[in-house]
Amino acid sequence: MSAPTANPTQKIPILDLKPEIASIREELNAAINGVLDSTHFIMGPNVKAFEQEIADYLGVDHAVALNSGTDALILGCDAIGIRPGDEVITTPFTFFATGEAVSHFRATPVFIDIDPVTYNIDVNLIESRINDKTKAIIPVHLYGQSVDMDPLMALAAKHGLKVLEDCAQSFGAEYRGAKTGAIGHSGAFSFFPSKNLGAFGDGGMFTTNDPAMAERVRMMRVHGAKKKYYNETVGVNSRLDEIQAAILRVKFKHIDAWNQGRREVAARYFDLLAGIEGVIAPTTMDYATHVFHQYTIRVLGGKRDTVQKKLEEEGISTMLYYPVALHRLPVYANAPHGPLPVSDQLSDEVISLPIWPTLEADKQERIADAIRRAVQG
Ligand SMILES: *Cc1c(COP(=O)(O)O)cnc(C)c1O
After folding, report:
1. In terms of DSSP bridges, do strands 204-208 and 62-66 run parallel, antiparallel, or are they unpaired?
2. Model's pTM, two decimal places?
3. Fewer beta carbons below 10 Å: N end or C end of the chain?
4. Which residues contact 234 (CB under 8 A, 6 or more apart)?
């Protein structure tokens, strides 16, 4: 009997945070204990330091820590001046929060179809949908790969539009050497636990080089007050907790190595999946430094759901990001859009595979083998 290289009954989750936490457990304990000892839980030194560290890393003048990525999008929409009746161009192939932020202002998300190669907004389709009401564009760097930002920024400049980058999935990703979140007029990041840089709870960040926008978001996150108890407008409570900031500062020191780990895992997937008929691996663009928040393949021939079911039977978890494009949700039944055939097709074909920075090769071999058998069977 030969020794098995992998335990075939061992479950493989879509994301395993345990090895990451174990590798920095002492640092985390010290950081959390430091906050407990200080009893400074809100708007303390960790939030301030974390904002500066992120601003320096991204190469932006201002980073404002918030309670979630959703709030970064909502307060970002407020800061770029979205008002009732405005139109905001974005992708339907994203998490709900991207469109939701626009709708919060009784403005209208205008959904543009995606590029079949990158799954990001098809920049070539944007200009025909710009009109007098168009105020902004929200590109989403889906799965950790940057949108083609040069032509998008050129369009924005030509038509006087503001750009708010949705960087929830792209922390550390680059476009032609510039970090996402530092290319548009503003950026929105999420530190949801499963994101590449994840807290142990909710968290987010707004980024910009515009001092007026930064000041607006800083004021809005504390009830519309620049000075406590001298409220100037109706804001919200959207602060990042000190404990989360302390945790994020520890994790931030490792993010480049972790993103590199994800790229290595992705490289192995590319090798393992090559030649499986009916499976299309993701494409990494020359302009992008991908951070593989997700490794998402397409399964052709209407077999995606069968493949997911068969993998699940073998203990391999996968996720569908996203099974329903936003224009197909009842809440957006009346949103204006033309046909969005690529988004519709991709919603039926995409499946995201397990990925984290230290995912082992033997697990990936088991996953690829299961996929091969599932598409052939
Ligand atoms: C996660 C995510 C968000 C929302 O971030 P939260 O921190 O969960 O509010 C927004 N947009 C995209 C594309 C996301 O993946």
Report:
1. antiparallel
2. 0.97
3. N
4. 223, 224
